[in-house]
Design brief:
Order of helices and strands: EEEEEHEEEEEHHEEEEEEEHHHHEHHH
Low-confidence stretches: none
Structural class: alpha+beta
Mean pLDDT: 84
CATH class of one domain: Alpha Beta
Number of helices: 10
Strand content: 25-35%
Largest sheet: 3 strands, antiparallel
CATH architecture of one domain: 2-Layer Sandwich
Number of strands: 18
Shape: rod-shaped
Amino acid sequence: MFWIKQIVVGDGERGLLYRNRRFERVLAPGVYRVFDPRNRVAVTVHPLVRPEYAGSDAEVLMARIDGPLAEHFVLADIGTDQVGLVLKNGKLEDVLAPGTRRLYWKGLVAVEVVTVSLVDSLRVDPRVAERLRQLGVLAKVAVTVDVPTESAGLLFVDSTLVETLAPGAYAFWNFRRNVSLEVIDLRVQSLEVSGQELLTRDKVSLRVNLAASLRVTDPVAARTKVAKYGDYVYRELQYGLRKAVSAKTLDELLGDKASLDADIFAYARGRVVELGIEVLGVGVKDVILPGEMKDILNSVVQAEKAAQANVIRRREESNATRSLLNTARLIEESPVLMRLKELEALEKVTEKIDKLTVFGGLDGVLKQLVSLKT
């Protein structure tokens, strides 16, 4: 008959029957014949493969969920301080933001909604975080951070420090609150202060390069008591270097760099210790003088070395003269020693003569070649 409307609902489907645009009932799988002479009955068929209900009348159905609809729907009503975890067939598949209301069909897919409170803690359970990472949605619903070894993590919620994190991997829900994380390196760090133009106590201009090593001992103090602790330490090293150089003359600086290092170290360490930063060491790498000052110093060094060479030369000449005088006295007192000296002289002469003709024996040679005044 023309007034009978036939409705077919498949095994993986559910139907919603409306009469006069008002919801009347849910149709399970089967064949239905509805008397509708005035065409006032409408039926929408929904597949259960995707259990999320996407109809525009979801809020109307939620208002009647306590009735017969409870047999066909799961209501997810997430509070403003909660996060909803949607499990399908026992596996986490979706995350619902705070304040979300959603309907899910029962039947083909087993749907369970688990709520997580945001009041006690914002930390995401590691197993939940791993599953959300697999689904590719972790970055959309949470803030993640990896804190390496020898580092510390600082958790800020609404610009307030709430927790210090040990090394590890973390994720925190990012709903309705501003969550940020910072990683502070606790390893030894190096810092260089280069090209500082300074004046010594005797008004000599020079350029100094400084190197320092430091580490963070209290990450909370280093982060909260100063905006950028690296810039602060750099500035204090500059002040310490200027103060130490201006208190010494050029000769004192060049003669004892260790005392300069100690002065800078003591100043900088005292200034940053309250910020949770420890200065481990300070060392002046280079002291660079202007060109004219280099020439002057080179001239001074050359003059000093020349004077030292003259002193050494005179001392050696005096020693040689004294030795000759002692030898002469011994020869005067010993004829045998004098004879030996004569033979040594003869040996040296004969080394330079190709041929030697001797008349009158060896004594004649000695008397003619060597003659000493009595």
